Amino acid sequence: MMQPVTPMWAFIQATVARATGQQCRRFLSSAARQQTRRPTPPCTATTRPYQPLVQRRFKFKTVEEAKSRYRSGPFSWKSGVLFVLTGAGLLYYFEQEKERMQRKRVAEAAKGVGRPKVGGPFELIDQDGKPFSDKDLKGKYSLVYFGFSHCPDICPEELDKMAKMFDLVQTERPGALLPVFVTCDPARDDPKVLKEYLSEFHPSFIGLTGTYDQIKAMCKEYRVYFSTPTEVKPGQDYLVDHSIYFYLMDPEGDFVEALGRQHSPEQAAKVILDHMKDWTGQIKTA
Amino acid sequence: MGILGLFTSTSEEEKRASEIRKGTVAPTRAERQRCWESRDLYFACLDKHDIIDALKEDKKASKECKAESTKFEENCAEKWVTYFKQWRVQDIQKRRRLAELEAQGGIKLDVNTQFTEKK
């Protein structure tokens, strides 16, 4: 039984000796390499005070605290909230900016170069028979609508809508908007008729009329299509075909945007108020 | 009252109603409302009897919806009566076309063609 053990033992001894020999050599070689390095000032005990073997990277009282911190990494509820808030803030800002730019583009696109594309000078009379011109619109936003008192369905509905949006704008920006109604039927809509007609919609509405040629010129400037049937005998009833848009004009008398049947009074009022917000100049309120 | 009253009565009310019918004066809000109500009743009757164009199917319309037609013509200007009848044909055609397009997978845009606000 002893015989097989002896060679085994010898083998182990030999391996260990070889291993230590290698270790020795390695130690010697690394020690030799060390000598070629740049000399460093000798460290003395006086310059290096005793440092306890405690990890000082985080200031935690307990190991558990440190462990939990390690598990969650640099994320805490505070940083989370901060991240979400910043994100939401930026998103809100960009959305606002986008909308503003969109509105600006609409307003700018409508301005045109040189002569405005829609709107222009006019000389008409209001429902009290007083002269009223484009100069009376300057300094305020104005909402211009074309229609006629004998209109069967659309104009009365749209005028009710105009009254609603005017009131909505009025609550936020009193006196900043002029609601203007221009008749396309000057033959029948004299100041008296207009006064009676408009008083049922809103006391602040301004009704404009004039001669056929004056109205025709006004409609042409505002790019309003209207057609009075030809060959109407005096006293004969007729309907006038006309465009049904509200024209929003800025304080300088330039066209801003057309509001149509698809806008609810609330939507329209919002569009108007937003444009007013964007206006950098003065808006007269008296 | 009625059509005969138009010629015999000289009362203010009748005079006014006749002026509205002829289109010499513009109706007030209340008068317009009355006209629209009688129009809606008349159209409801036409719907019931499957009449689309009351101008073309004049005989059938006046036979089936006599009472409603009389009221309609009494409360509205003559021009308005014709206009509303034409509008009805166009509106029905428009609705049909829209339904057709929708069946084909068209995208509906938000456009209001109703007289009354949607409730």
TrEMBL record, chain A:
One of its GO terms (biological process) is intracellular copper ion homeostasis. Keywords: Copper, Disulfide bond, Membrane, Metal-binding, Mitochondrion, Mitochondrion inner membrane. Disulfide bonds join C151-C155. It comes from the Eukaryota. Its main location: mitochondrion. GO terms for molecular function: copper chaperone activity; copper ion binding. The keyword Membrane applies. Belongs to the SCO1/2 family. This is Protein SCO1, mitochondrial. It comes from Rhypophila decipiens.
UniProtKB/TrEMBL annotation, chain B:
It comes from the Eukaryota. Residues 12-22 have a biased composition (Basic and acidic residues). GO terms for cellular component: mitochondrial intermembrane space; nucleus. The keyword Disulfide bond applies. Its main location: cytoplasm. InterPro entries: COA6_fun, COX6B-like, CX6/COA6-like_sf. Residues 1-23 are annotated as: Disordered. GO terms for biological process: mitochondrial respiratory chain complex IV assembly. Keywords: Cytoplasm, Disulfide bond, Mitochondrion, Nucleus. Belongs to the cytochrome c oxidase subunit 6B family. SUPFAM superfamilies: Cytochrome c oxidase subunit h (SSF47694). The keyword Transferase does not apply. This is Oxidoreductase-like protein. It is found in: Cytoplasm; Mitochondrion intermembrane space; Nucleus.
